[in-house]
Write a structure and sequence with these properties.
It is a single chain. The protein is mainly alpha-helical. The chain has one domain. It has helices at 9-17, 33-39, 56-109, 120-154; strands spanning 44-46, 52-54. The chain has a two-stranded antiparallel sheet. The radius of gyration is 47 Å and the shape is elongated. The model has no long low-confidence stretch (mean pLDDT 76).
Length: 157
């Protein structure tokens, strides 16, 4: 019987099928400064230490992009505020029209109109103010007519 130097034929077969490979260090492609500059559209160059550095134009482009992004966000926030303000304005306009209609009906009918806002007292006080205003206006018209009549008399008419 022959004895082989390998103790296990299976291990020997595996060693032959899977050769050992040594790790290879990755090599970075050597790009020139011009290649980097052109690829980045003039925004980046290779620095003295070999790392990448932003050019002044690249810094300006980055700053402009950041500012544009902030302006867009500000515009969106302002649009949401305007939308909320518009909704509130529409609500107040509808409420105001409702109140105006209630006041008009109360004055026209000289009756109490009750609503969700309990405006009966306000309507009554507005009706009283309107009556006072009408009385003052009537007196002013009367006084004006008297004064114009006395002026006609003084001219001999």
């Amino acid at each position: 019987m022959q004895v082989t130097s390998n103790t296990n034929q299976y291990q020997a077969l595996q060693a032959q099928q899977n050769p050992i490979t040594l790790p290879v260090e990755p090599t970075e492609p050597k790009y020139s400064n011009k290649d980097i500059y052109e690829a980045s559209n003039g925004n980046i160059v290779r620095g003295e230490d070999g790392g990448l550095v932003a050019t002044p134009q690249g810094e300006l482009n980055h700053s402009n992009a950041k500012t544009a992004n902030e302006e867009q966000k500000t515009a969106e926030v302002q649009e949401r505020k305007d939308s909320a303000r518009s909704t509130a304005t529409d609500f107040l306009a509808a409420s105001s029209k409702k109140s105006q209609v209630e006041i008009y009906l109360a004055v026209a009918t000289e009756g109490k109109i009750d609503s969700d806002n309990q405006t009966a007292d306000v309507i009554n006080s507005l009706r009283d103010v309107q009556k006072q205003n009408n009385a003052v206006q009537a007196y002013a018209t009367y006084k004006e007519a008297q004064d114009s009549g006395s002026l006609l008399k003084s001219f001999g008419a």
